[in-house]
């Protein structure tokens, strides 16, 4: 009979469960082992798996140890009284010193010890993560009570990384079919275990979300404008369109009966201290929005929205900013605004099974706008693709991020990303239609001032051919070295908690990166550190340096996505789709490739005597040099005429004909004066044409020489590409030694190209930087951009000078200085609004009078970014291109 007061030995948990799961192959076998173990547990210790689950899913146990690997290592060193420079591994040291051969400690005992460890704080030391004397004492106790093998598992539990090849989703699915659903809805681990242990629980109809319990919300489904038709066809008509906001998604919980607020991010992190706990706290957001919420609510209120940082300009319009850590009572400074777009609970009743239309009807009558601290997001009803595109155009002109289209008949599905909520974003010329959210799986150290600091990011996509309940796998996609500000570098080094040395032949099972790749990180970063970054790039190109055999061209970091985890990053399927979408416009149309008609048969004509070729009668073949080779000789050179070249071919085993057919090698003149027949061949570029000297050199050396540029009279593009694999465009081999004569010949062939434009030289520089430099070149930040600078039409100089003219002159000089700085950073300035290469429109924030007209002028399928002069300075200060969104001209936005 089961005895819930007894507890299983910790040794059995390690050897009969963890060790077996590690050694099992495949998730199915691992699940079977866990299932058998749970049956035995239930029979001996009862149906509540909480004590077991806290160890099996340490990341869900919510114990806060405040210990990273380095700190933990220092504690163990002190507990063992060994020198920090000891070369022995922890396991070896503990094994050699431990007197514990068998342990009587139970699962309850280890949970009590871990609870003590998580509550040990030291006001002087904990913040700095230095060695805490109380921690050392607990570890000494642990070493005296547990075997070395058990301590190995305990350390993994503390680090919240068991590495058993089973995800938390897989484990929950074995515990109970509804366990994951309960956890997503905000139940804690202990509540999940108690609920599934209670035979009276009706798990198939649990009551959804609850007040003050964090849940994982529904997110929008990504969609490109090219796929609108297929996605909107499934929506109820008319559907809702809302502005897509760039802010922090937040679930706010409120109970007016006890005047209590709680705020949770979409990853269930508690942000209550930041935004306020009470309506009386006028220094936090909660104190400014309570009047707009229901005054009486028996069971509380749970709206869902986005926190934006906002303030008023002089005209009273709402403008964007980024800093929310300011005095919220100072109306002149930016402050957070809660923009509400859904409600999930009202009067204690969960609304997730109500339709969106029903939820919004309730929201509209219960929530009231509160100045610029809380607003209901407006929405319009649309029915067609044309209406969506028109609305998206309007959003672009207002500098909004995009649209969210929602099905009014849809129900709310926790922890999902379904096409009942569809995100549409505009396409910009300097990036693909959709930025990529990628997982950071490795990093490289910087150089110079960044020496010893992780500075470049190896990023990966998630392999979604593997079910979410199985251990994940990630495939590398790009190395990012552009876009990281000094602040981003600091953030990266603080977020990277679990670092491994990179060894190309010993990669962890969750990662694939080509072993022979030249893109080698210095450190690998464990996927459960969940460092997600938003990356933009101009296009996806083939590359054998990364696991997906492609990479982004000119990749640039936009920002860290702390609101996302490894499950939210771009998947392999999404990558394949983005790759296909990136090829739009690159393929010629089918009709262009069709033949316009059948070719007419050409009549045969008798050649004149000079074109009939060398008479081989009585001339014997002496070598097999040109065996199985056929030539079409049009001309010879000064030393050897046409007939003599043909004789050389025949004597050395080759064939020659009098017309170009198939794979025949065409031989042309070496002369500067080109005969008419050859000129036609050269102008039409129908075939490669080889100089007659090639035949002479082959015969002299008695070897069929490889073709090189010096032998070519006419070279097709495909042949040039083959040459460039082995030599440069002038024929200088990458691998063969050269001599003085070859150098002279190369210099003669190179000549001097007076016609090469600045644009061509700049394109060559771009290729060199992309191909040969693994990080950005200081002073070349803008090399991949083209900018249009906004200047006011010139004013005549008045006499005497007026204040208006002095102000105008000051603005013009500021703009000119910004342009000079931009060009100094190798940016290219275009003065033509019609130039479709323009990636940025730069304005002086002191004069935005032409903003609306420029927005109209630059309204194109692919848009440039609008920025102020401050963007140029920020890029130069950070030695990289920074995110443009922080430097947009500040204009009123509608919420």
Automatic annotation (TrEMBL):
**Biological process, per Gene Ontology:** DNA biosynthetic process; DNA recombination; double-strand break repair via nonhomologous end joining; nucleotide-excision repair, DNA gap filling
The alphabetized UniProt keywords are: ATP-binding, DNA damage, DNA recombination, DNA repair, Ligase, Magnesium, Metal-binding, Nucleotide-binding, Nucleus, Repeat
The UniProt entry, under InterPro entries, shows: Adenylation_DNA_ligase_IV (IPR044125), BRCT_dom (IPR001357), BRCT_dom_sf (IPR036420), DNA_ligase_ATP-dep (IPR000977), DNA_ligase_ATP-dep_C (IPR012309), DNA_ligase_ATP-dep_cent (IPR012310), DNA_ligase_ATP-dep_CS (IPR016059), DNA_ligase_ATP-dep_N (IPR012308)
Q: Which residues cross the membrane?
A: none
Region Disordered: start and end of each range? 577-603
Q: Which Pfam families match?
A: BRCT_2 (PF16589), DNA_ligase_A_C (PF04679), DNA_ligase_A_M (PF01068), DNA_ligase_A_N (PF04675), DNA_ligase_IV (PF11411)
Q: Which Enzyme Commission number(s) are listed?
A: 6.5.1.1
Cofactor(s), names only, from the UniProt record: Mg(2+)
Compartments, record wording: Nucleus
Q: Which CDD domains match?
A: Adenylation_DNA_ligase_IV (cd07903)
Full protein name: DNA ligase
What is the organism of origin for this protein? Thamnidium elegans
């Amino acid at each position: 009979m089961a005895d819930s007061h007894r507890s299983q030995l910790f040794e059995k948990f390690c050897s009969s469960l963890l060790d077996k799961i590690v050694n099992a192959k495949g998730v199915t076998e691992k699940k079977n082992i866990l299932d058998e173990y749970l049956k035995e547990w239930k029979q001996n210790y009862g149906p509540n798996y909480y004590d077991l689950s806290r160890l099996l899913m340490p990341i869900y146990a919510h114990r806060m140890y405040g210990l990273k690997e380095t700190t933990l290592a220092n504690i163990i060193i002190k507990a063992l009284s060994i020198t920090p420079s000891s070369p022995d591994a922890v396991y070896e040291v503990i094994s050699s010193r431990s007197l514990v051969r068998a342990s009587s400690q139970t699962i309850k005992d280890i949970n009590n010890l871990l609870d003590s460890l998580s509550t040990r704080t030291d006001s002087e030391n904990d913040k700095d993560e230095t060695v805490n004397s109380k921690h050392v004492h607990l570890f000494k106790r642990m070493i005296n009570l547990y075997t070395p093998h058990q301590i190995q598992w305990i350390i993994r539990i503390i680090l919240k990384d068991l590495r058993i090849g089973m995800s938390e989703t897989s484990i929950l699915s074995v515990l109970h079919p509804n366990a994951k659903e309960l956890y997503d809805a905000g139940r804690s681990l202990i509540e999940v275990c108690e609920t599934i242990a209670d035979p009276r629980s009706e798990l198939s109809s649990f009551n959804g979300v609850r007040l003050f319990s964090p849940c994982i919300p529904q997110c929008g489904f990504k969609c490109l404008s090219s796929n609108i038709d297929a996605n909107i066809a499934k929506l109820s008509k008319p559907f809702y369109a809302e502005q897509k906001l760039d802010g922090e998604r937040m679930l706010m919980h409120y109970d007016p009966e006890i005047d209590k607020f709680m705020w949770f991010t979409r990853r269930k992190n508690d942000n209550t201290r930041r935004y306020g706990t009470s309506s009386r706290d006028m220094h936090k957001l909660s104190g400014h929005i309570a009047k707009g919420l229901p005054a009486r609510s028996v069971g509380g209120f749970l709206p869902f929205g986005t926190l934006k940082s906002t303030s008023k300009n002089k005209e009273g319009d709402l403008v964007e900013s980024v800093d929310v850590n300011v005095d919220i009572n100072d109306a002149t400074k930016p402050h957070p605004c809660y923009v509400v777009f859904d409600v999930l609970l009202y009067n204690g009743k969960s609304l997730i099974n109500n339709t969106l239309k029903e939820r919004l009807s309730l929201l509209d009558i219960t929530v009231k706008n509160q100045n610029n601290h809380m607003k209901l997001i407006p929405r319009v009803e649309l029915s067609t693709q044309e209406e969506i595109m028109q609305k998206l155009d309007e959003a672009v002109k207002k500098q909004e991020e995009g649209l969210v289209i929602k099905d009014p008949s849809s129900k709310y599905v926790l922890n999902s990303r379904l096409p009942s909520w569809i995100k549409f974003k505009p396409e910009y010329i300097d990036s693909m239609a959709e930025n990529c959210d990628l997982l950071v799986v490795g990093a490289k150290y910087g150089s110079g001032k960044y020496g010893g600091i992780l500075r470049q990011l190896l990023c990966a996509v998630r392999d979604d051919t593997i079910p979410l309940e199985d251990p994940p796998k990630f495939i590398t996609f790009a190395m990012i070295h552009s876009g990281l500000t000094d602040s981003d570098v600091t953030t990266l080094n603080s977020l990277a908690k679990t670092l491994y040395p990179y060894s190309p032949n010993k990669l962890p099972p969750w990662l694939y990166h080509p072993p022979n790749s030249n893109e080698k990180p210095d450190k690998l970063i464990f996927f459960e550190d969940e460092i997600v970054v938003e990356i933009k790039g101009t296009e996806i190109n083939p590359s054998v340096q990364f696991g997906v055999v492609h990479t982004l061209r000119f990749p640039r970091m936009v920002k860290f996505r702390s609101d996302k985890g490894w499950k939210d990053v771009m998947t392999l399927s999404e990558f394949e789709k983005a790759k296909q979408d990136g090829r739009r416009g690159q393929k010629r149309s089918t009709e262009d490739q069709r033949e316009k008609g059948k070719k007419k048969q050409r009549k045969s004509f008798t050649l004149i005597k000079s074109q009939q070729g060398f008479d081989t009668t009585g001339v014997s073949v002496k070598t097999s040099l040109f065996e199985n080779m056929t030539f079409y000789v049009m001309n010879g050179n000064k030393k050897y005429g046409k007939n003599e070249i043909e004789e050389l071919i025949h004597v050395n085993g080759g064939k020659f004909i009098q017309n170009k057919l198939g794979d025949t090698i065409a031989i042309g003149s070496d002369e500067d004066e080109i005969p008419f027949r050859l000129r036609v061949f050269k102008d039409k570029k129908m075939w490669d044409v080889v100089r007659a000297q090639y035949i002479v050199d082959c015969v002299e050396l008695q070897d069929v020489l490889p073709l090189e540029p010096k032998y070519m009279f006419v070279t097709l593009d495909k042949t040039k590409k083959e040459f460039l694999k082995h030599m440069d465009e002038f024929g200088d081999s990458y691998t063969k030694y050269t001599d003085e004569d070859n150098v002279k010949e190369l210099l003669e062939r190179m000549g001097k190209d007076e016609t090469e434009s600045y644009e061509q030289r700049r394109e060559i520089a771009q290729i060199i930087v992309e191909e040969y430099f693994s990080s950005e070149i200081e002073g070349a930040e803008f090399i991949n951009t083209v900018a249009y600078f906004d200047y006011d039409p010139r004013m005549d100089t008045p006499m005497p000078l007026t204040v208006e003219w002095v102000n105008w002159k000051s603005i013009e000089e500021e703009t000119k200085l910004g342009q000079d700085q931009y060009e100094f950073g190798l940016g290219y300035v275009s003065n033509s609004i019609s130039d479709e290469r323009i990636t940025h429109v730069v304005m002086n924030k002191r004069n935005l009078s032409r903003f609306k007209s420029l927005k109209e002028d630059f309204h194109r399928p692919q848009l440039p970014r609008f920025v102020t002069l401050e963007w140029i300075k920020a890029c130069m200060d950070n030695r990289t291109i920074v995110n443009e969104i922080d430097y947009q001209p500040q204009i009123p936005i509608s919420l």
